[in-house]
Each structure stands twice: as structure tokens, then as C-alpha cells.
Design goal:
Blueprint lengths: L24 H9 L17 H30 L5 H24 L18 H4 L23 H4 L7 H8 L7
């Protein structure tokens, strides 16, 4: 893959940012996979909701529906049909407590991040004009210099090692000014 901003060839097809300029390559991959259209999850404000957010919204709607369902149920059941009032109270408690439990479950157990879309392409194929030179090259071409005749030099041949007693002999050769 090549960075569209600086032209740097990337080491892997799975990189998210250009190693030279820091350009966001994941967005380019998503745009190419969508046929040139900006995917929905890259557009501001169009991100899908996470399961946690959906659960909190569902719980809040259940709790708020108590204010609509219970009066309508009371008018129909008690006012028009002259029925008992216990089902109305049971519906009020069930909706309110059920909504509260749904919110608690969403906050404690559900994932906070939205699911990834599977329709995006995982790897970016560079355009043909960039891809022609690097398509079939696994390694760089062989060098012109033949390395088969090269051998490791023997370091003992370079500098003759000093004698073990050489340092002691040097000390004896020096005259001590205090002995004169």
C-alpha cells in the first residue's frame, strides 16, 4: 500500500497510519472499498450506536412510556369498561421498573463501542500505475558484487599481539629518579 499524501510504501496492508507523514490510511481504505463514497461511519454524526447506548435508550423509552400507557390504560379499563384498577398499577410498576432494570443491564453488561461494519475492504490495493514495479518483487534484485570469495579476516594477522611480559619489562627499563 502507498500513502496517497507522501507516496511512502507501507510495510503492511493492515497499517492504520502512514509511517512517514501520519496520514490516516484506514479512511482511504474505507473510501476505496465504498467505491469513492465516504462510508456512513466516517461521516460526522452518522455513527452507529453501541449496544450500551441502545440499551439505555430502550430503558428510558420504557420508563417514559409509563406516562402514556398507564393513563390510556386507566381511561379504557377503569373509565370505559368499569374494570378493576389493579392491572393499571401493575402496568405502571412493570414499565417503570423494567425500564430501570434495562438501563442498569445496559450500563453493566453491554459493550460501549459500536460494532464494526463487515462490508469494508480490509486491504487497500494500490492503483495499477503504482503497483507495476512492486507486484512480483519479493526481495531486492541480486547485487552485482559477488560475495562468495569474501572471507572473514583473521584478526591475529592484522596486529601482532603484545607479549605477556612486555608491560613488566617496560617498568624495569624506566629509571627511578629517587634511586640516583
Amino acid at each position: 500500500m502507498y500513502c496517497p499524501q507522501c507516496g511512502q510504501q507501507q510495510i503492511s496492508e493492515q497499517v492504520r497510519y502512514c509511517s512517514r507523514c501520519g496520514f490516516l490510511l484506514e479512511a482511504v481504505t474505507a473510501v476505496l472499498a465504498a467505491g469513492g463514497m465516504v462510508p456512513r461511519y466516517l461521516q460526522p454524526g452518522a455513527r452507529p450506536l453501541s449496544p450500551r447506548s441502545k440499551g439505555v435508550r430502550q430503558g428510558a423509552m420504557m420508563m417514559l412510556s409509563t406516562f402514556l400507557v398507564v393513563p390510556v390504560m386507566a381511561i379504557i379499563l377503569v373509565g370505559i369498561l368499569n374494570g378493576p384498577g389493579e392491572p393499571v398499577g401493575l402496568a405502571a410498576v412493570t414499565l417503570f421498573v423494567g425500564g430501570l432494570l434495562r438501563i442498569i443491564y445496559a450500563l453493566m453488561m453491554e459493550d460501549a463501542y459500536p460494532p464494526k461494519e463487515n462490508n469494508q475492504m480490509n486491504a487497500y490495493a494500490p492503483p495499477p500505475q503504482f503497483d507495476q514495479t512492486a507486484r512480483h518483487v519479493g526481495l531486492p534484485p541480486a547485487s552485482v558484487n559477488n560475495t562468495s570469495s569474501w572471507r572473514r579476516p583473521n584478526t591475529s594477522e592484522l596486529i601482532r599481539p603484545p607479549s605477556v611480559t612486555e608491560n613488566t619489562t617496560r617498568l624495569l627499563d624506566k629509571e627511578d629518579p629517587s634511586n640516583r
